[in-house]
């Protein structure tokens, strides 16, 4: 590691700490329905939305109605995005004349599910597949909607802890509207204007065709990039306008834009931890969650960074040598944008997979095995290390329920958290969410390693892993495992090196995303309803304190241990064994059926 790289990481973390409280206070005011400095400019838009949609602002919902509203909204959004993709040839703002056959039914299904679930997994390159109208009216709109839905669920769960002896946890439609109007929309407008000032393009022009100095024709893509880039970061969506995502100079032109985009990713998830403390009337509780997330974030980035800085032990600046050599001179720059370098790329890799954003400024497929283990494990924790907008908070609260349950078992008393007894129902709902996500990842990854369809569409008993991978051995397995972890974790980043634009992967990844989103959210809303109906109890001498270093350590340990116990066998077959093979001087060649040479 270098001193400048460490300083950059610490400055970034300092900025996040500084904005957490102001962002949290603003979010509390928004979701409590109190007047903010944005109300004079935007209250009319909120009011018009309620009146045009038949929403009663003062009406609240039971957790079952709240869940049904969420599912209904998501289902309608899915149909809209699917249909608009299939009809893009007949819709306006299509200067490249992309036709309906470009977006096949299975790919349209995968993309619609992806953006509705805030995953934004992309098995295509947007600049060569989707029209401007589809990019704006379907995908960018869903970046707002899915992000606001995640925040609404988080706030509903917090109300479960903060309220007592009530049957309601808020109104989904009101929470959705407020999150969009007062949080995501203003931040995205500011972010888009900033990105435009730095060189990110925003236009509706056809692609430019220019002649290079060598006399070769080159197509330079155009489009409404800044508007989609801003909400993809603020809403932790991650779906880029270009296939290269945030490594593309039209999306992320300078180190300054790169730094601001990193701040945009963590800003709302960090602020939601303070919202939690304020709403339960004990800010120490919110800071404890923030401290847990920060601890796990710093561990991740300071594992990823030195692994990349050390580089490949087989390679030196002189070429391919034995494993006993000093390592890759200067660190691993393979797959990196030279504008950013190793430290910034390691930071971006960690942040984007901590926050279920999915935007990438480097190729994760080119990371060293231990560095690649970090984003994979980040996602497999359930995206709770700050996580997505809303998703990080409600995911970490799920682990808090598990942590206090374990603490209760240790001391032989009923566990309590924020003045609420954690009983059978809450623990069952938490475990259901964890098991459903893990089962989806491991089952689909296992199946895809042995069965599937080959590139020509025929049944291939040798498996999709062989038919659609560009790498073999443990690295190839890591590509499959990462894909399904990214889907179920609603992250959307890709390890790359794998062709997922096939019927098998499009359909299984689509199901994977749905399971990871809704079989995680619905149990938590049920737990929120159960908690809201309970009476708050006063703390006693036997109450386990949940605001100090002991709880932070316990909570972080539960996150790591649950992730390790669940996924260690799979990780051992992927990045872990690849690391030891690399250290011993063995590489897997691109052979038809795998194998390695040394």
Question: How is this structure best described in words?
Answer:
By secondary structure, the chain is mainly alpha-helical. The protein has a domain at 21-272. 60% of the residues lie in helices and 3% in strands. It has 17 helices and eight strands. The protein has helices at 3-31, 39-53, 63-86, 105-116, 132-162, 172-197, 225-234, 255-279, 283-310, 341-354, 369-380, 391-411, 424-448, 464-467, 473-488, 503-532, 549-583, and strands spanning 208-211, 217-220, 315-316, 319-320, 416-417, 420-421, 587-588, 596-597. The strands form four sheets. A two-stranded antiparallel ribbon has the order 1-2. A two-stranded antiparallel ribbon has the order 3-4. A two-stranded antiparallel sheet has the order 5-6. A hairpin with a 5-residue loop joins strand 1 (208-211) and strand 2 (217-220). The longest helix has 35 residues, at 549-583. Residues 317-325, 461-465 and 591-598 have low confidence and may be disordered.
Topology, pairings included?
Layout: H1 3-31, H2 39-53, H3 63-86, H4 105-116, H5 132-162, H6 172-197, E1 208-211, E2 217-220, H7 225-234, H8 255-279, H9 283-310, E3 315-316, E4 319-320, H10 341-354, H11 369-380, H12 391-411, E5 416-417, E6 420-421, H13 424-448, H14 464-467, H15 473-488, H16 503-532, H17 549-583, E7 587-588, E8 596-597
Antiparallel strand pairs: 1-2, 3-4, 5-6, 7-8
Helix pairs in contact: 1-8, 1-10, 2-6, 3-4, 3-5, 3-16, 4-16, 5-6, 5-7, 5-12, 5-16, 6-7, 8-9, 8-10, 9-10, 9-11, 9-17, 10-11, 11-15, 11-17, 12-13, 12-17, 13-15, 13-16, 15-16, 15-17
């Amino acid at each position: 590691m270098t001193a400048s790289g460490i300083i950059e990481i610490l400055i970034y973390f300092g900025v996040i700490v500084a904005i957490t409280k102001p962002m949290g206070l603003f979010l509390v005011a928004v979701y409590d329905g109190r007047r903010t400095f944005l109300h004079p400019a935007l209250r009319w838009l909120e009011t018009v939305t309620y009146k045009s949609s038949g929403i009663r602002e003062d009406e609240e919902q039971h957790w079952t109605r709240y869940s049904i509203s969420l599912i209904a909204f998501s289902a309608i959004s899915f149909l809209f995005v699917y249909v608009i993709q299939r009809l893009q040839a007949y819709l306006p703002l299509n200067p490249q004349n992309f036709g309906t056959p470009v977006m096949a039914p299975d790919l349209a299904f995968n993309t619609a599910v992806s953006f509705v679930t805030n995953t934004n997994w992309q098995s295509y390159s947007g600049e060569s597949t989707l029209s401007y109208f589809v990019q704006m009216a379907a995908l960018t709109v869903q970046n707002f909607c899915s992000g606001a839905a995640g925040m609404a669920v988080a706030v509903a769960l917090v109300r479960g802890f903060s309220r007592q002896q009530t049957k309601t946890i808020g109104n989904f439609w009101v929470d959705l509207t407020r999150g969009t109007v007062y949080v995501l929309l203003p931040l995205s407008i500011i972010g888009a204007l900033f990105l435009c000032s730095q060189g990110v393009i925003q236009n509706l022009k056809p692609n430019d065709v220019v002649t290079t100095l060598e006399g070769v024709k080159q197509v330079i893509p155009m489009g409404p990039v800044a508007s989609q880039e801003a909400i993809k970061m603020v809403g932790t969506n991650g779906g880029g306008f270009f296939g290269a995502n945030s490594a593309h100079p039209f999306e992320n032109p300078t180190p300054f834009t790169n730094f601001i985009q990193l701040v945009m990713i963590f800003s709302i998830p960090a602020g939601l931890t303070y919202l939690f403390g304020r709403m339960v009337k004990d800010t120490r509780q919110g800071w404890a969650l923030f401290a847990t997330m920060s601890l796990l974030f710093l561990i991740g980035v300071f594992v990823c960074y030195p692994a990349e800085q050390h580089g490949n032990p087989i390679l030196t600046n002189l070429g391919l040598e034995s494993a006993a050599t000093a390592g890759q001179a200067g660190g691993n720059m393979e797959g990196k944008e030279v504008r950013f370098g190793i430290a910034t790329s390691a930071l971006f890799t960690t942040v984007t997979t901590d926050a279920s954003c999915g935007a990438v400024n480097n190729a994760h497929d080119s990371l060293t095995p231990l560095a690649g283990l970090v984003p994979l494990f980040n996602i497999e924790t359930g995206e709770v290390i700050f996580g997505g907008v809303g998703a990080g908070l409600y995911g970490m609260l799920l682990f808090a329920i598990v942590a206090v349950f374990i603490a209760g078992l240790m001391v032989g008393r009923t566990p309590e958290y924020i003045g609420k007894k954690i009983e059978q129902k809450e623990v069952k709902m938490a475990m259901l969410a964890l098991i459903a996500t893990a089962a989806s990842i491991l089952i689909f990854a296992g199946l895809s390693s042995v069965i599937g369809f080959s590139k020509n569409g025929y049944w291939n008993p040798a498996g999709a892993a062989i038919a659609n991978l560009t790498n073999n051995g443990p690295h190839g397995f890591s590509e499959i495992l990462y894909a399904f972890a990214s889907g179920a974790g609603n992250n959307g980043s890709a390890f790359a090196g794998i062709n997922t634009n096939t019927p098998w992967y499009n359909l299984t990844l689509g199901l994977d995303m749905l399971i990871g989103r809704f079989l995680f959210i619905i149990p938590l809303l049920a737990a929120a309803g159960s908690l809201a109906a309970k009476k708050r109890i006063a703390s006693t001498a036997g109450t386990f304190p949940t605001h100090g270093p002991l709880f932070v350590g316990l909570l972080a340990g539960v996150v790591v241990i649950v992730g390790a116990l669940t996924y260690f066998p799979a990780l051992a077959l992927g990045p872990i064994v690849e690391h030891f093979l690399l250290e011993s001087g063995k590489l897997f060649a691109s052979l038809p059926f795998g194998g390695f040479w040394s």
